[in-house]
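Lab notebook, bench 4. Still working through the backlog of constructs that have no structural model yet. Next entry is a single chain of 112 residues. Request: give me the structure tokens for it.
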Amino acid sequence: MKLEGTCERLVVTNTNMSGSEFDDVNLSGTRFHNVNIGGCSIEKATITGMTIRDANMSGAVMEDVNLSGLRLNDVNLSGASIRSANIKGLRINGVVISELLANVDTTEKEAS
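Model written out:
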């Protein structure tokens, strides 16, 4: 199926759309429930104001992403790796991380 230049409201239920491609599409206000998006790629996206609940993002990779103002509640960050990050003002359980790491030498640890 191909939709081009249309402004329709779609209700898609119990459907396999794996392998689909979306280019220059406005999905603002769209609701996704019980959706498998494993292995998908999102590039050049505006997702401000998005809410993600009860999601498994293990193994996800985020590159060149702006997460300023992001709030994470009740998350599992075990095994997570953060590199080349601006952590100014970042707080974990109220602790300002940039101040905590101010005197830590990470040059050797970055290579691993």
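Notes after review: The first strand starts at residue 91 and ends at 92. Helices lie at 97-100, 107-110. Flag for follow-up if needed.
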